[in-house]
Amino acid sequence: MMRLKLRHESGFHYKGVIHTSYNEARLLPGDHAGQTVLSSRLSIRPRAGQYGYIDYFNTPVTHFEILTSHTELWVEATALVENDRGEPRQAEIAPWSELPELAGSTAKLVEYGQQTRRTRPPAEVADLAAAARREEPDPAAAAVRICREIRDHVEYVKGVTGVNSTAEEAWGQHRGVCQDITHIALGALRAAGIPARYVSGYLHPDAEPAVGVTAAGEMHAWIEFFTGHWLGFDPTNRSYIGDRHILVARGRDYDDIAPIRGVVNGEGESEMFVKVELTRVA
């Protein structure tokens, strides 16, 4: 069990005046299996009207609008989360022969099995996925092998890709960040016939976090794959999801889970800022 305190400060500095702003944020974690939110809050400057809802992918979303002129948008998400995920569930793994029927049993599973612009795999990745499907005894073993092999081929390097990069572009460089590695893994899993979804959240950077010590963090991305039940895996760190992970949002790819998205009425360019802090409190 691990209790984590989250503070995520982000927003935009505008070079001109913004008159109105309409936004949605996916920054606050929700309750999930093994994850309990003890408290959470979203603070916004300038003062904004806000309301929350749950989106199509069961992600908590905060909509807010600012109707006064401003040159900066500041958003702070804070939360206290208790995680007790235990060991990964290895039961209920469907055999290859049953997976196609299960994968087509609901509309969302069908969607999680289809490629998007961001996840469409290059031929080399599709071949890697086909080999895992052919050689591994069950879909779960194939999924983990796919994630680990992709990570072996992609070096974690910041600054070589952008927020709009695709799996194909990142694979061509064999470098990228967690978002890129996740998109490549999603494309490979779906090519192997395994439904998979993009997950965003946070990961405490220390393997054994000390109680009371605040660490600088950042938003993180990983995958969940379906083999009779959903199982989370972090391809960037070659590990199952554990108590250091805080789950925030799920979707087909990054486009479904952008932390802050909005439209503004005003002039000039903007510069985004982000600061994340994670503290283990118990």
Oligomer: single chain
Number of strands: 15
Q: Could you please say which CATH topology of the largest domain applies here?
A: C8orf32 fold
| DSSP helix fraction | 10-25%
Q: What best-fitting shape do the alpha-carbon axes yield?
A: globular
What structural class do helix, strand and pairing data support? alpha+beta
Mean of residue pLDDT values: 96
Low-confidence blocks of residues: none
Give an account of the 3D structure.
The protein is of the alpha+beta class and 282 residues long. α5 (167-173) links the parallel β6 and β7. The longest helix is centred in the middle third of the chain and has 15 residues, at 139-153. The strands form three sheets. Strands 1, 2, 3, 4, 5, 9, 14 and 15 form an eight-stranded antiparallel β-sheet that branches. The protein has a five-stranded antiparallel β-sheet with strand order 12-11-10-8-13, covered by helices on one side. It has a two-stranded parallel ribbon with strand order 6-7. It has two domains: 2-84 and 258-280, Sandwich (Immunoglobulin-like), CATH 2.60.40.2250; 99-254, C8orf32 fold. α3 (123-135) packs antiparallel against α4. The protein has helices spanning 99-103, 107-112, 123-135, 139-153, 167-173, 178-191, and strands at 2-25, 35-45, 49-54, 60-66, 70-83, 155-156, 175-176, 196-203, 214-217, 219-226, 230-234, 239-240, 245-251, 260-266, 270-280. The model has no long low-confidence stretch (mean pLDDT 96).
